[in-house]
Amino acid sequence: MPPDRLAFAIETAHAGGDYALGRFRDLDGLQIESKGHQDLVSDADRQTELLVRAAIAEAFPDDGIVGEEHAPVTGTTGYDWVIDPIDGTANFVRGLPHWGCVIACTYKGLPVIGAIYDPNTGETYSVEKGGGAFLNGRRLQVAHVASLADGSVGVGAAGRADPERVAAIVRAVLLQKGLFFRSASGALMLCYVAAGRLIGYIEDHMHAWDCLAGLLLISEAGGTHLALDPHTALPQGTRVIAGAPEIYPVLQEISDTIVANS
């Protein structure tokens, strides 16, 4: 009998994150490559993903696997495991202790399980569709706020992003008396929305491995996010707008206006 999927995701995120943490403590031994502008990968990313993939293949041999660093594996069950072995590689390779190991499991294209482990803080975010969102076993709830002036909005900006659109998002948030936050780990910023630390998040495009676990966390913590297309989210990624329900419409208006004017 296969293991419980949520317990497996948590255990495997811990194994991957702890392995990566060992590599983080020996940065001089890393082999680092550039995949493009501000898009780095290290041998620690690749080895961590292989560790996670091996665990999945043993526990759920008929499931699919999609990861950032290696080719996808097609499954037959409708379940696909989605892996970002080190979300925040730019931080990781420069010695900044803000990154995590991210594992999601989708069913027919939509997330049903998520585990995000930050080994630098010991924080484990876990979620199962219909079962709530948790941080180290404590149930999460998004912030309840009246306006952008009541908190900070995470703004994603990958190297491939249009700088004019990113600047326009930041300007729109500031004009409404809000603050913006960017940490170079989209997955952890989505966790912070679920935990009520950030009131929302906007990014023009995120890959599935960066966002699916975090978006499920936000939903199960009482938040709102732009609906995912089950046919495209996994292979193509998605635009991300997420936040506390009271200010989600404001965030969507900001994003939609900027997209329409670009």
Structural commentary:
By secondary structure, this protein is an alpha+beta fold. It is 36% helix and 28% strand. It has eight helices and 14 strands. Helix 1 (5-24) packs antiparallel against helix 2. It is globular, with a radius of gyration of 17 Å.
Offer a quick outline of the entry.
The protein has 262 residues and is an alpha+beta fold. It contains 8 helices and 14 strands.
Low-confidence stretches: none
Shape estimate: globular
The strand line-up of the biggest sheet is 3-4-5-6-7-8-9
Beta-strand share of residues: 25-35%
Number of helices: 8
Number of strands: 14
Order of helices and strands: HEEHEEHEEEEEEHEHEHEHEH
Class based on secondary structure composition and strand pairing: alpha+beta
Largest sheet: 7 strands, mixed
Bin the helical content: 25-40%
What does the radius of gyration come to? 17 Å
Oligomer designation: single chain
Separation, N- and C-terminal Cα atoms: 52 Å
